[in-house]
Amino acid sequence: MNDKALKEEILKLKDELHVSIVAHFYQKDEVFELADYAGDSLQLAQWAAKDANPYLIFCGVGFMGQSVKILAPQKRVLMPKIACCAMARMIDVEYYHQNIQLLEKAGISKEAMVPVTYINSSAEVKAEVGKMGGYVCTSSNAKKIITKALNSGKKILFVPDRCLGQNIAKEMGLKSCIIGDGSDPKEADIICYNGFCSVHQLFDVEDIAFYRAKYPDILIATHPECKVEVCDASDFVGSTSQIIEYVTKLPQEQKVAVGTEYNMVKRLRKENTYVLSSTKPECPTMNETTLEDVYHVLLSIKEGRFENEISISEETRKWAHKALNRMFEV
Ligand code: 13P
Ligand code: SF4
């Protein structure tokens, strides 16, 4: 089947089977165009959990589909591809506890820290955070959540993204460190796990210098998963939806270079918009999902096979829900 025929089949099956499709902004154009709803991690979880259809096809990465299942366990959530975010894969329950033990050895008791996990983590890691009274945050609300968590008077253990943790600390005038970087974690307000996004590591201050030299009036917008020095040198730092809002409100003639995933940047604005990199910053896992995959997963619903369905044990879901819910309460 060609793309046009595939799309028609998908839309027909979707209506017949009462299925909603959501897509993250980083999805390929042809998949993105099919979605009933597109958004950043937070918006997708909120929208999908409230949606009335019994079946949801989530075009994104694994932790995003899991977030919907945690919030709306009655819904059958399927993914065209079980693609796992590279950053989320950098931490599991064992690593999480090993890092806590390292901090205990450095003189910080478990009771003296409150964990905050970026939403880019597995349901199991979120559950461990939930058990310790901690929070989930996203790139759009990290500052609010950290402000709330700091009210406890404890240190923040921030997992898994060292960049988001360091960027928020800098913005709030707080001290941060990375576990194992040789500094004393007792000196830090935000102690970061050593995880990162390989895609957002591609953006460098040299890329910013290049664009500023070429177009002196250009604006630079980056995602907080970028390195601290890159965010520091940017005019705007925000989540994917915040970047879209920022760029679309600029006058058409205003040039802007954007430091986030390629699919989203090239869809942003036809003119005067540049990818802040000399390489193509594509997220390999986000790009795994194809139209064929969406069609096959729909067929599996029709035939009762439910391929790539997200399932989470009730015990894990219950604790992960506590951490997610604490975020929504803030
Ligand atoms: P957003 O929540 O900003 O969409 O970010 C998700 C993500 O994985 C960015 O790399
Ligand atoms: Fe994960 Fe980075 Fe891809 Fe976002 S861009 S889904 S953080 S690997």
TrEMBL record:
<dbReference type="InterPro" id="IPR003473">
    <property type="entry name" value="NadA"/>
</dbReference>
<comment type="pathway">
    <text>Cofactor biosynthesis; NAD(+) biosynthesis; quinolinate from iminoaspartate: step 1/1.</text>
</comment>
<dbReference type="GO" id="GO:0046872">
    <property type="term" value="F:metal ion binding"/>
</dbReference>
<keyword id="KW-0662">Pyridine nucleotide biosynthesis</keyword>
<dbReference type="InterPro" id="IPR036094">
    <property type="entry name" value="NadA_sf"/>
</dbReference>
<dbReference type="GO" id="GO:0008987">
    <property type="term" value="F:quinolinate synthetase A activity"/>
</dbReference>
<dbReference type="GO" id="GO:0034628">
    <property type="term" value="P:'de novo' NAD+ biosynthetic process from L-aspartate"/>
</dbReference>
<dbReference type="GO" id="GO:0005829">
    <property type="term" value="C:cytosol"/>
</dbReference>
<dbReference type="GO" id="GO:0051539">
    <property type="term" value="F:4 iron, 4 sulfur cluster binding"/>
</dbReference>
<keyword id="KW-0004">4Fe-4S</keyword>
<protein>
    <recommendedName>
        <fullName>Quinolinate synthase</fullName>
        <ecNumber>2.5.1.72</ecNumber>
    </recommendedName>
</protein>
<keyword id="KW-0408">Iron</keyword>
<keyword id="KW-0411">Iron-sulfur</keyword>
<keyword id="KW-0479">Metal-binding</keyword>
<keyword id="KW-0808">Transferase</keyword>
<dbReference type="Pfam" id="PF02445">
    <property type="entry name" value="NadA"/>
</dbReference>
